[in-house]
Design goal:
The complex is a heterodimer. Chain A contains nine helices and 57 strands. By secondary structure, chain A is mainly β. In chain A, the strands form 13 sheets. Chain A has a 22-stranded antiparallel barrel. A five-stranded mixed sheet of chain A has the order 6-12-11-8-9. In chain A, strands 14-21-22-17-18 form a five-stranded mixed sheet. Chain B is mainly beta. The chains are: A mainly beta, B mainly beta.
């Protein structure tokens, strides 16, 4: 009987699809019911019949709780994710296999025909009409590309398109397309464009992105074509704390060692003083370790803090934090995409050994003007955005300023309450986007000012601007051109001692131009190739005596100019559907050029002023020294089964710029220094391998990665080196070897009320500075643990969604203690007691543990309101543990007392108010 | 000091209080002790100069392990040997004498040591450097703020203007030796050691003492990067008024020592290592290699630095000034058991006089009747003006 009705229905389906649902709502509570039982329940409650074939539904298990839902909606929800659709017929419900049905009924194609391929089609393909799919008009829409008669048979064709946010029209870089039938997929590029080679046929396509609702379509593909996809914000989906990457993409597409962080994640993680800090979130991922509380640096896979590159829209950022590292120099509200490359580093990136932190800001709203902001005890921020030309061009302005002086004034210390501290950052961005051409202008400015009574003044700034132009010649070829300029500088005024008072300004500027092509050769090969040139101009500044009493000698620390050029090519090669590779080659050249005076030293003598033998004068523009760096970057991705993959990568990287820093943390007046006549670029090779698996039951994802890294020409500094008095850095620098190895384990769960992740990292880092002469050795040439050698790190994050608008998050961090050199014996010389130390970094300070908790409450969800508020309450260091930052020794009454120094040893409570004009969904 | 301030600031910023607490790391008592050579050759007017040999000891063990039975000699660049003799009264101290005319600026000297184990130790040659004439030390009343306890301490801050010329050393070591007078509160008159004793007339010989000690701070200065070989208001030490250092007079000997660059680097590095503070920007301890090598066992490190330095010194005297020291003597009233409350370990237990020929049942600790129990001796130094 059922079968007969079903066939009958096939013919009349269109009517039923659009027929209104007139049924009264019912109450449904089902917990893991087989569909047949669920259907019975609905039949009884609603007094209707549900027609279906047992074989279609035998795998469907239903969990549904709703006090008021129409029977049609209830069944729809139960079938969500299956290939079945439900329709109403004379008050009863009929289940249908959607694929069969719709292909046979062309009049009900919602989409206009798109993207016809011409008979004489060259590689260039016409996009005649592109269909815009709006919202969620039906559960599954059908997109037909080309016409049946144009079908190319079995030869693969290319489908492509743009992915936008429905609400603002912004593109969604990194959104993923997954074809269920072929189990293959792709991810959108930086312009939100995707393309995929596929044989003609009928497919189910799924579009996904962090924080967006999944979009599913039926694709009827006859020939090449393109279409646009609009995605909606996932307001209250359970998977709000999807951490990074997409599950399927982690398995199939993601490069080894690539991490992505969703902005949504940042908002819910408890943060000190309520400042959302994307960099601190990154420190919760495996392989990335904070240099310490109150410090901006990170150590990635056993690398030094200066081995990481930070970019915001291609602008390099030399100091990523405000106020000694307590706050981020980026406003996380404007961040769209945050990628961290710590394993496979694509050939388009150069210049740093360990990692690349790439931040892309979002485009302004292309449909409406919006304003939103936030207020915390330290700072306030405001974002204004809107269209310049609807759907095509938009702008976004953001600003943030601190007002922390009032806190200082309240502190009962004459030095502190006479001090002052300010920071601010601003961005402006204009975005123009047509199908063929994209243009983005972006400007960034951040500054810090810190005055410690009348003793010291520090200030620093990062300024930058970038122009990015993109043009699609065809769906097979795209051009990107960018020009970037950045300027970082600081000033120090030291007035502690009249006799030695000085002022000093430092500045580094760099200008980069880049031309890059993305080219699809065929369905197996995608090429990315380009060339880049960077000019560095570094002014280490002049140390000027300050005040008439100062006897400080005016010292010119010198200027440096360098050029760095590179050509690169990467082939993304899909060897088989299961095996793909990224093979890249980058050839870089680095040249330091004059004008410059270089001193030479007597051979076999320490590099000191008194052993200077001669000097070499280099004229303006004359090359002092060239360094060449042929680098290979390779990643292999092998899909072992539908839930797992194996990834291997090999990387060779070079670094031409270093931080002159011999302390644990990075001081606000740390100078950067370019490779020069003596200082060679550092070179590093990393090999890593990882296993990635998803466990569909319970939505678990796991990964295990191992790495080994070897670095040559690693820079260390002579004991007690000072960089403010010495123009000749070669006198303080030693170069040697550094090794690091370890493994990273991650398990995470998403898509549930209770979700989060657990990450464990084991990594070791050792340094050996063993040059021939004893004065060019550290630790007598023996291997010693690097000061950032932290073997065990555990990070866990739990998020629980209590109600729609209330969620609670908690994070836990554990780290082994940092290596330290301890005193081991006393001795006496001329009545004074002295301390004898152990070999370098032989001991460790106690471990670090911290638990934080936060609660986020969203304002009501009414649609029509002027302002939407949310509140974030957080407790930092919940247990109040006094985590040691360092251990130090002090002599008292002839005894050597040891102390530990903690920065934050109490629980710290903060309330933050975030607001925006409009309702919850407003951007 | 600046570093500490930055940290205090950061702590303050987070509405926090500083968080420094004692912590005892586990340290292996791994290394066998090292030989320590202490002393230098100077152009002092003293007849005898000395070198002290000792061994390094595990942390916080309150012993001083002398190295006795060595053969020590000083050599000059002309091959003259000046033998040192181990002091009979204090073993481990080796005394030597070099005639004034043989101690010359510009001449190189080195030390040679033969230990009882047969190890031969020798320093690199050190050229005696000239030092600028010392200027009179200055002082002013000042306050320093104690961040941990939130109060100001008043006291005397000493300064020195340092000046040399083009021919004298750019590297200075400043040594400070302070002497102060201090008093016990009561003369010795009545005491109990099972029976009562009466000393008459009361013995006040242990009521006035003088303590001389090296100020335990290493002070180094380099004028290498300054346009002239001089420094204005170099901060010496701070003497607080809430102790009894200044109550009865205070004498300070300031010794300006000229160093070679190498010696300066050595003293500067041990100074840095001795002043490790809590800081965000802590540095690694500096490698403090001296200039003395063990020729027999080169792998065995020798601690210390043998230098040949010209010195110039000045002494100043600060008259008694009003201070508010914490009392060192607290008489205890004996309440219940009478004299038998004075335990055997306290014998002789001194008692307060009633100034009428009797005594009161008030016990006076040793501190109350013997200034030398605190520190110093009751022998007045010859430079004391009163």
């Amino acid at each position: 009987m059922k079968t007969i009705i079903l066939y009958f229905q096939l013919l009349w389906l269109p009517l039923f699809l659009i027929s209104p649902d007139s049924k009264e709502p019912i109450k449904v509570h089902a917990d893991k019911l087989p569909f047949s039982a669920f259907a019975k329940l609905i039949e009884e409650k609603a007094n209707l019949k549900i027609y279906y074939q047992e074989s279609w539904v035998k795998d469907i298990i239903v969990t549904l709780h709703n006090d008021s839902i129409s029977p049609l909606e209830a069944v729809k929800k139960a079938l969500f994710g299956s290939k079945l659709t439900v329709s109403e017929w004379e008050g009863n419900l009929i289940l249908l296999s959607s694929e069969q049905l719709i292909t046979k009924l062309p009049p009900y194609q919602i989409i206009k025909e798109a993207g016809l391929q011409q008979a004489d089609a060259s590689l260039t393909k016409q996009i005649e009409k592109s269909a815009y799919l709006k919202g969620r008009m039906a559960d599954l829409q059908v997109i037909t590309l080309g016409k049946q008669e144009q079908s190319s048979g079995t030869r693969a064709v290319e489908i492509s398109g743009n992915i936008h946010k429905a609400i603002s029209g912004e593109t969604i870089p990194g959104a993923t397309l997954y074809i269920e039938e072929t189990k293959s997929g792709t991810a959108a590029d930086n312009q939100g464009r995707f393309s995929l080679n596929i044989r003609p046929g009928k497919y189910t396509a799924r579009f996904n992105f962090l924080g967006m609702e999944e979009k599913r379509y039926h694709l009827n593909i006859y020939s090449s074509g393109s279409f646009n996809v609009e995605m909606n914000q996932a307001n209250f989906e359970m998977d709000e704390v999807v951490v990074y990457g997409d599950k399927q993409m982690n398995i199939r597409v993601k490069d080894p060692g690539l991490e992505k962080i969703a902005v949504k994640t940042i908002r819910e993680i408890p943060m000190m003083m309520g400042e959302q800090d994307i960099l601190k979130v990154s420190e919760m991922l495996p392989g990335i370790v904070s240099v310490g509380e109150g410090s901006s640096g990170v150590n990635v896979r056993g690398g030094n803090a200066d081995q990481n590159a930070f970019y915001i829209n291609n602008i390099p950022i030399y100091n990523t934090s405000h106020l000694f590292g307590f706050f981020p120099a980026f406003n996380s509200e404007i961040i769209n995409d945050f990628s961290i490359y710590k394993g496979y580093i694509p050939a388009s990136y150069g210049g740093r050994l360990s990692s690349v932190f790439d931040i892309k800001t979002r485009e302004g709203n292309k449909k409406n003007y919006t304003l939103h902001g936030g207020i915390s005890p330290i700072s306030a921020n405001l974002i204004l955005e809107g269209p310049i030309k609807k759907e095509t061009a938009s702008f976004i302005l953001s600003g943030r300023r601190s007002y922390s002086d009032w806190i200082l004034a309240k502190i009962d210390d004459p030095t502190i309450n006479a001090s002052s501290s300010k920071f601010a950052d601003y961005t402006a961005s204009v975005n123009y986007d047509t199908q063929k051409t994209q243009l983005t202008l972006f400007g960034y400015y951040s500054n810090d000012y810190f005055q410690l009574a009348d003793l010291n003044t520090y200030s620093y700034y990062n300024k930058g601007a970038s122009v990015n132009y993109g043009h699609n010649f065809s769906d097979y070829k795209r051009l990107n051109i960018s020009a970037v300029g950045s300027l970082y500088g600081f000033s120090t005024l030291d007035t502690q001692q009249e006799t030695t008072s000085y002022e000093h300004n430092y500045q580094i500027a760099d200008f980069e131009t880049r031309i890059e092509f993305e080219q699809r050769l065929n369905d197996k090969h995608n090429l990315l190739y380009g060339a880049t040139a960077i000019v560095y101009s570094l002014d280490r500044g002049t140390v000027n005596p300050y005040g008439i009493e100062s006897l400080k000698v005016k010292t010119e620390l010198g200027t440096e100019q360098s050029i760095e050029g590179a050509v690169y090519i990467t082939d993304n090669y899909h060897i088989t559907p299961r095996l793909s590779t990224n093979i890249g080659f980058r050839f870089g050249a680095f040249g330091a050029f004059g004008a410059k005076t270089v001193y030479t030293y007597f051979e076999d003598y320490p590099k000191e002023d008194r052993y200077i033998q001669d000097s070499i004068q280099f004229k303006k523009g004359e090359i002092i020294k060239w360094y060449f760096s042929p680098d290979i970057r390779a990643a292999i991705n092998f899909e072992t089964d539908k839930n797992g993959s194996l990834k291997v990568s090999y990387n060779r990287t070079h670094q031409n710029i270093f931080m002159l820093n011999n302390t644990i943390a990075i001081a606000p007046n740390t100078q950067w220094k370019l490779a020069d006549y003596y200082l060679k670029p550092a070179e590093s090779q990393q090999i890593s391998a990882g296993i990635f698996r998803t466990i569909p039951y319970g939505d678990w994802e796991t990964s295990f990665e191992m790495f080994y890294k070897k670095t040559h020409n690693y820079t260390e500094f002579r004991d007690g080196a000072e960089f403010i008095d010495n123009p000749n850095v070669e006198q303080s620098v030693l170069q040697g070897d550094q090794n690091a190895y370890g493994f990273e384990f991650l398990i995470k769960r998403s898509g549930h009320k209770l979700n989060g992740w657990f990450a464990y990292t084991f990594s070791r880092a050792f340094v050996k500075i063993a040059n021939e002469n004893s004065w060019e050795q550290i630790n007598q040439g023996k291997l010693y643990p690097a000061s950032f050698d932290i073997p065990h790190v555990i990070n866990a994050m739990i998020n629980y969604k209590i109600r729609k608008r209330i969620s609670v998050s908690s994070t836990i961090t554990y780290q082994s203690g940092k290596p330290v050199t301890y005193p081991i014996a006393n001795y006496t010389i001329e009545e004074l007691d002295f301390i004898d130390y152990s070999s370098r970094n032989k001991y460790r300070i106690p471990h670090y543990f911290r638990a934080d908790i936060s609660m986020k409450i969203e304002g009501n969800l009414r649609k029509n309101k002027f302002i939407h508020s949310s509140f974030l309450f957080s407790v930092y260091n919940l247990t109040g543990r006094e985590n040691p930052y360092s251990v130090f020794f002090d002599q008292a009454n002839g005894y050597l007392m040891s102390y530990q120094y903690s920065i934050i040893g109490v629980p710290l409570f903060t309330a933050t108010w975030l607001f925006k004009l409009g309702n919850y969904a407003s951007k | 000091m600046l570093r500490n301030k930055i940290i205090v600031f950061i702590l303050a910023l987070g509405f926090l209080s500083a968080c420094i607490k004692p912590y005892t790391p586990k340290i292996d008592t791994e290394t066998s002790s090292k030989i320590v050579v202490s002393g230098k050759l100077t152009n002092t007017d003293e007849y005898w100069q000395s070198i002290t040999l000792s061994k390094s000891i595990p942390l916080n063990e309150n012993i001083f392990e002398k190295l006795t039975g060595c053969e020590v000699s000083i050599w000059d660049e002309n091959g003259n040997e000046y033998k040192a003799f181990e002091s009979q009264s204090s073993p481990g101290i080796y005394m030597f004498h070099i005639d004034k005319e043989n101690i010359k600026v510009g001449t190189a000297y080195h030390i040679h040591i033969l230990t009882p184990d047969g190890d031969e130790l020798q320093s690199e040659p050190e050229i005696m450097t000239k030092v600028g004439e010392i200027k009179p030390p200055q002082y002013k009343i000042d306050s320093i703020y104690n961040g941990a306890y939130k109060y100001y301490t008043r006291g005397l801050q000493f300064f020195l203007d340092i000046e040399g010329d083009e021919t004298s050393s750019n590297y200075y070591l400043i040594e400070l030796v302070s002497t102060y007078e201090h008093h016990a509160s009561y003369p010795r008159e009545w005491y109990y050691d099972g029976v009562i004793h009466h000393i008459y007339p009361p013995d006040s010989s242990l009521m006035t003492c003088w303590t001389t000690a090296r100020v335990p701070e290493i002070m180094t200065l380099s004028t290498e990067n300054l346009s002239a070989n001089k420094f204005h208001n170099f901060s010496l030490h701070f003497v607080p008024l809430n102790r009894d250092y200044l109550t009865y007079g205070y004498s300070l000997l300031v010794r300006q020592v000229g160093l070679s660059r190498k010696a300066f680097i050595y003293w500067e590095s041990v100074r840095l290592n001795n002043n490790q503070n809590a800081s965000l920007y802590n540095k690694q301890p500096v490698d403090t290699q001296g200039n003395i090598k063990n020729l027999t066992h080169p792998e065995k490190e020798v601690l210390g630095f043998f230098s040949a330095s010209a010195i110039s010194e000045q002494r100043i005297f600060i008259d008694a000034m009003p201070t508010n020291p914490f009392p060192g003597c607290l008489p205890e009233v004996i309440e219940h058991g009478g004299l038998r409350d004075i335990g055997r370990e306290k014998y002789p237990g001194f008692l307060m006089s009633d100034y009428k020929g009797g005594f009161l049942l008030v016990y006076l600790s040793e501190q109350c009747v013997d200034c030398s129990s605190h520190s110093g001796t009751n022998v007045k130094p010859n430079f004391w003006p009163y």
